[in-house]
Amino acid sequence: MIEVTELKKFYNGVAVLDIPSLVIANGESFGLVGNNGAGKTTFFRLILDLIEASSGEVRVNGETVARRDEWKSYVGSFLDEGFLIDFLTPEEFFSFTGKVYGKSKEDITVFLESMTEFFNGEILGKRKFIRDLSKGNQKKVGIAAALIGDPQILILDEPFTALDPSSQIRLKRMLNELKATQNMTMLISSHDLNHVTDVCERIVVLEKGHIVNDIFTNEDTLKELEAYFAV
Amino acid sequence: MITFELFKHQWLKTYRAPGFHRNLVVNILLAISGLYFAAMLVLMGFIAPSILHDALPDYQPVEAFNGLLLYIVLIIFALRFLMQPLNALDPTPYQILPIKRTRLINYLLLRPLFNPVNYAALLFMIPFAGNIAWKAPYHSGWAALRLLVITVLFVWFNILTASLLKRRYGSNPWAMAVIMLVAGILFLSEYFHVFSLFDISLRIFDFLIGNPFGWLIVAGLAGLSFVLNKRFFSQHQYAEKASKQASGGKSYLKKFSFTDRFGKEGSFISLILKLITRNKRTKSTLFVSILFLLYGLFFYPKKMYDDNYGFTFFIAMIATGSLMLMFGQWLISWNGSHFDCLMTKKMNADTYIRANYTLMMLFNILCFIVTTPYFFFGTKVIFLQVSAFLYNIGVNIFLLLYFASYNTKRLNLNEGSAMNYQGTTYKNFLIVLPVMIGPMAIIGIASIFGAEQVAIWVFAALGVIGVIFSKPLLTLCQRRFIQRKYALCEGFRKKE
Known about the structure:
The complex is a heterodimer of chains A (231) and B (496).
Chain A lengths: L1 E10 L2 E11 L4 E5 L6 H8 L7 E6 L2 E2 L10 E4 L11 H11 L4 H10 L1 H4 L15 H13 L5 E5 L7 H18 L2 E5 L3 H7 L2 E6 L2 E7 L4 H9 L2
Helix pairs in contact in A: 2-3
Chain B lengths: L1 H14 L3 H4 L1 H32 L5 H23 L8 H4 L5 H10 L9 H15 L6 H29 L3 H19 L5 H14 L4 H21 L3 H8 L16 H16 L1 H14 L1 H5 L9 H20 L10 H6 L4 H22 L8 H26 L21 H23 L3 H17 L1 H24 L3
Helix pairs in contact in B: 3-4, 3-7, 4-8, 4-10, 7-8, 8-11, 8-12, 13-14, 13-18, 14-16, 16-18, 16-19, 16-20, 18-19, 18-22, 19-21, 19-22, 20-21
């Protein structure tokens, strides 16, 4: 469970994020939409303790995240290429990340086998460093590495961009499966309203740092969102 | 006009780099050290004849110089091959514009010829040429002028050939081994009088300087190199092909799996070892640290440093701690490009700092073992090296770890050359004061009162105390790191 209270972030006196209260329940799939600069990435970075909140706090499973390490055991995340170690091969990166989470070699092999469909034969055994992979394939590596530690909570920033159409569909299928089988909490931001309504039960719209809409997905959600973003 | 535009873009690239203005202090310090080296070169130009006369009394100074010149050309060539960066201007945005290919190629090839730094040799040659003009065996102003022309032509030849070989063979680790081997063979055959490059060099340069048209041969060599370069480009006109060759394949995919046995710390250390061997920047740092290991060879045997304990302690610190002192400056910031990754994975601050500490410790132990042959220079060296080692592992290691979190600049690991100051701030120079200059100064002051041995004992004792209290000291570094975490995250996210 993620609880956000009085969370504010200022840059040069301007509030880029201001969330008085927000609770994301266990097993909830939470979609975050909003135009560029709405504060989506800032919000995720605050949850992951990568920037310091100007005030307020984020609690994961009842414990504050700021300057702490406990939450790292059950949160998996991939925001951007800064989450990759680009001079490693994908295999080395998975084995490093797996070891950090205390996984054995066999665990990692089993995990990578479960990713076979998502990887579509483009990631493993290529003898390439991550920095030499395409943006889409880098994204696949990052998403897989976020899942390697069996997280209770998964945070992904724009997971669908840069992926080819087939991989987008595979990713959606994989996320829905994880939700069904492991009751994983998911926080996903996206510009693609179609995908995010397909995956998420709850969608929050951010605008200039404020929550302007908080809806539980039904058959009208997509239309509602399209109407909201129409110009 | 387009060529002019390209030069302008190059200048803008330097001037508009985000770090350029913020880094004014560093740039000024670099400029000052540049001026210092320039002054040294000019001074060397004036005093070289008397040094050469002392060193090789059988020859005229100019002859001795001619004999050594081929060595100098070859050494500069090797250094250039190892250190010279290739085309700094990324041609891709220009390739799609209607600019003639030959013009771009000419620009890429000839740009280094317009870099004044490459003509530093003239600072030495111009005062030295006076010797040719007024002394035996030439007594000729024309010969002096020819020497200068030949120097410039050799600079061109060196630049063009080195970049050709570099483009052709890439920064292959074997290339360095081959160069070292050839240098070793030449040196040994000279020493055992098997074959004398000195005599050959003497004859070649005597001819080139003495003959009014000798310089044409060198010009021909430079021209040939230019033509070969152009041919290489016409055969490898696609950036993809060339860069594949420059990266030298993946044959150096080392695993360093032996460290994995030591848990999380171990896998972090193996990560850093991969980081060092797979990025250009860190590879050239590694090369420089190996050179530092050899420092003792130059200074320990010299009589003039016998009583200068401060300076020799400084040398001992560099020799026994070269890896830590070179890489320790970049602790934490070398993880800049994947810092978010480390901070969101299950890697506690405690593990992170401890792993860095362990790695620095291993570096020190390795350097200490490798430099033990210096013990043959006498008990004084043993005393100095052991104390310096203790001081490094007990005090310097913690200073570096503690202050590392203040360097929040992202390092660009893929841009390599030995003279790369990207990511350097005045903080790097500040840390040198307590780490290196401090002990040297204190021992120097103590030696005025005849207490230099006591001072060194004190430094050694401080080191032992540091090792004993390593646990609380590490906790201190760790707390500092956690406090600085957000500043580090933010700094590393800014790309230069």
